[in-house]
Amino acid sequence: QGQQGASQEPPRYEIGGINVTGTRYLDPNTMIGLTGLKVGDKISIPGDDLGRAIRKLWDQGILGDVNVVIDRFEGQRVFLTFDVKERPRLSKIYFTNISKTQADELRNKVKIVRGKVVTDALLNNTRQAVRKFYTDKGFMNVKVGITQEPDSSLPNSVELVVDVRKGDKVRISDISFVGNEAISDGKLKGKMKKTKEKKAYKFLNSGKFQRADFEADKEKILDFYNAQGYRDAIITSDSLITVQDEYSYRWIGTENGKFGIHKATVREADKLVLRVYLDEGPKYYFRNITWSGNYLYDSKTLSSVLGIKEGSVYSKETLDKRLNYNPTGQDVTSLYMNDGYLFFSIDPVETRVEGDSIDIEMRLSEGVQARIKDINIAGNTKTSDHVIRRELRTLPGDKFNRELLIRSQREISSLGYFDPEKVGLNPVPNPADGTVDINYTVSEKPSDQITLSGGWGGYAGFIGTVGLVFNNFSLRKASDFHNWRPVPGGDGQRLGLNIQANGLQYQSYSFSFTEPWLGGRKPNSFSVSLNKSIQRTSTTGSVLDIKNGSYIKVNSATVSLGRRLRWPDDYFTLSNSLSYSQYKLKDYPYFANFSTGNANNITFNTTLARNSTDNPTFTRRGSALSLSVNLTPPYSIFKGAHPGVNEWVEFHKWMFDASWFTPLVGKLVLNTRAHFGFIGRYNHSRAYGPFERFKLGGAGLGFGGASNFVIGTEYVGLRGYEDPNAQFAIPTARQGESGGIAYNKYVMELRYPVSLNPAATVYVLSFAEAGNAFDKYSDYNPYKLYRSAGVGARVFMAAFGLLGFDFGYGFDNVAPVAGAKQDKSQFHFIIGQQIR
Amino acid sequence: CSPYQKLLKSTNVNEKYEAAVKYYEKGDYFKAAGLLEPLIPLLKGRPESEKAEFYFAQSNFHEGNYTLSAYYFQTFAETYPSSPYAEEALFMHAKSLFRDSPEYELDQTNTVTAIESIQQFLNRFPESKFRPETENMSNELQKKLERKAFESARLYYLVRYNQSAVVAFNTFQQQYPASLYGEQAAFLKLESQRNLAAESVEEKQRERYLETIAFYQNFVDTYPQSKNLKTAEKYYDEARQFLKDHPDEVAKNPQAQNN
């Protein structure tokens, strides 16, 4: 038959019939359907049509083998036969000789799909996966056996039985280095992060050996050498030897029926001895550094920014840092990049090496200034664009500036809605028009907090709490029922609801709402909050009499407006608020000189704050400063004989808080804080009132750990001492004392992160602090402090906020009567972020 | 134990399959999906598996699990290209992605994927009976992207970053020349430019007012019926007044030299 097509094209045939052979359990017609071919289709032979059909059958994973045979040609028609081999399918997988938890973990690891055909590849992959699982855990001698057993309940199915013999864990017992003269073994071992010796006292080190980790650690050793000027250092080889320790001992007793001195030998589990052979090479120094291609800045300026002097130790690391990115100071690249020179590049070339001295020529290409064109945001699956976009410092039309790019990253992180470790910045230059687009990527994390707790609050007995904080709420979307899944969100508003109660004795309700950009034009935050709380105490001591007992009831409402300032710099915020509180008291014992009656308090507050911290959950650098003033109207100045001292409360109160974060070595961060507070009066003929005074002690949560438990007082934590109103509280915080009118407190805290996973950020800390409150200015003495020190840990979980505990030791005596036994060791629970 | 719970635990493949089809036809997609999911690997290679997989994808769609249904419809169309359901499956794949596309304020990666899938569907089945619905979906998604770009530019206008607003509206006009938001964009660009000119230092004001006039002329040429015409005219007058009060020194000087 003549072919119509061009001679190089394969001939096309019409399918006259498809036949399937070799099926036992499978349906031949379905097989035909799965090939994607049907009678009447035109296919090329030779060509890739048949290959594709086989691949499709194969991809189903239910066949052991597929062949296609051309039965015959009839003119333009072709008849095909697919010859398939069925293989048993996998119905179940079992693991023997290992624990159920590990079996479950393995089942996820091996990723076997039930219903697939059992092939050699599948068996091999399973064996490899199981083996890797155990060698990763340090069981280097694991043995894996797989057997297939027919499944009686399903035709043509087998069950896989995977038998695992873990053997003993193999650990590194000794690491040594050969060829190191300038740097000691111990120092080099310290540079290896994952490959460590197992020692009884190092309980955090597992001593596992893993090739991939070891290779990374070798790089670290070389990096360290390079940083010390040993630019030629190489690791020539390494060896890993398995040894088995044996030891003999003797005893006197019976063995095999014979009494006497016997000897026995005990073999210990396998151990690894790791030896690393290296060649340090000579130590190099910088000599002449010259610049070329620089038109904007002269060589002298560039050299001073680089800050590397002739004769200093050659270090690639320092050079890179000073050239490209220096987190703590200036670098050459940011000199250009912060001024729009996005296309700037620099290439340090070693022009001469003489003995141990190296000459370097810096070849610069300055490029043109780029302006920002488009800003794109991706990854925000919950938070609206505008909530992110309005925080960005990179603006369309501005010159590209790397510093502002990094600042924008900080702003996104501090919103608290995204994983701070995963904020992506990607400038995409358009060389054609000299512009740059900036693509930000974010990854949402849960930001709502739910507290449902019940617990014994010491003094008050059982206290139940229901607290909801929605940090990324949307009032705009709340009217549409569809958005309540579970709550409308994404507009960056904050809604908080909190109820705390233990029946009649103590109840507290609070509601608050904050809109961070009132009107959407400026970052002026607006918030409203309402509080109501009641606390009753039975005078007879019986809970049944509580209705007739003493009480304090407080109702309050606050409205506040905050705004960001551009001056002195744009880390500053100023907020003003007006609040009204009403107090109703009956026989209330905690204020001196005021137990029954009503009091009203109208306060105007203004707070000036500066916050440049880099991350709200685990802060590494930056500072937070705040100065706040609370003022009530000076009633008694207008009207000297103002009825009742407390009916309209009057005072002015000044608070200052400062907190600095400094990274020390590695991940260790030092937090230094200082806090001061003072209360003043307008009219010297009047006494200081009982409200808003300072009581120091404990975790800063008030007596018994219940927050705001005793109302109308400012509680400040002082670890190592008992909570205020307790028996061994510091003098001005004791029960019956009204608290101080001035206080100061100083804290030094060392923090070390254990986990920076956003689901649960964990850090440990040690602290030393000192503080005191004074009830008369004549007693005020900033050196008379109650000192303490201790350790603690914090866990930040997105759903629960910050939780933690501290163990503190108070150095100073606070016994109320001489000779009373003070417990100097104190344990504190911490709930929520503490400012003071 | 309800009959459904018993079926879930049953190992009888045929019985489970029959029941799943029945639930599906009754419209109980939740139960149908529950039964079909463990069944699908076991039905592989049997004639029932085609229907089972299609119904499973449909059930997921009806249950609102659009991410899943998009995936299952696509797998179905790839596995059974000659199935009578194949066209519908590809359509439903696109429709699932369409339903899965988030609001304009959020990340639009899914929207872009949906538009691509719709285009692929239309290329492959140009005569499809689903064509009108598919085209509607595509238009709606396009509008969403336009709105996102417009609102992004408008944010700079709202927060009074006038220069950025002008740049962003320019980019918007280049990207979406025939947008529904074109008129608003042109007007807000004019207003931002005028605000920029008014707030500028003196040496830059002239140049910026000239630009304001250019934007105005462009605006009235393109949108002569705009309801913002009055306000726009006010900005035009203001710009002209400024230029009259501050004649160009540079332009005047060479003339003086010539005379």
What does this structure look like?
The complex is a heterodimer of chains A (836) and B (259). With 836 residues, chain A is mostly beta strands. Chain A contains twelve helices and 34 strands. In chain A, the strands form seven sheets. Chain A has a 16-stranded antiparallel β-sheet with strand order 17-18-19-20-21-22-23-24-25-26-27-30-31-32-33-34, with no helix packed on it. A four-stranded mixed β-sheet of chain A has the order 2-1-4-3. By secondary structure, chain B is an all-alpha fold. Chain B is built from 13 helices and no strands. Chain B is rod-shaped, with a radius of gyration of 30 Å. The termini of chain B are far apart.
- Low-pLDDT residue spans of chain B: none
Number of strands of chain B: 0
Oligomer: heterodimer
Helical percentage of chain A: 10-25%
- State the separation between the terminal residues of chain A, measured CA to CA: 95 Å
Biggest sheet statistics of chain B: none
Structural class of chain A: mainly beta
Average pLDDT score of chain A:
85
SSE topology string of chain B: HHHHHHHHHHHHH
Percent helix of chain B: over 70%
Largest interface: A-B, 45 and 36 residues
- Radius of gyration of chain A, CA atoms, in whole angstroms: 37 Å
SS class of chain B: mainly alpha
User: Per DSSP, what share of the residues of chain B sits in E-state strands of 2 or more residues?
Assistant: under 5%
Count of helical stretches of chain A: 12
Main pleated-sheet profile of chain A? 16 strands, antiparallel
Throw out a few tags for this protein.
heterodimer, A: 836 residues, mainly beta, 16-stranded antiparallel beta sheet, four-stranded mixed beta sheet, 34 strands, 14% helix, globular, disordered N terminus, B: 259 residues, mainly alpha, 13 helices
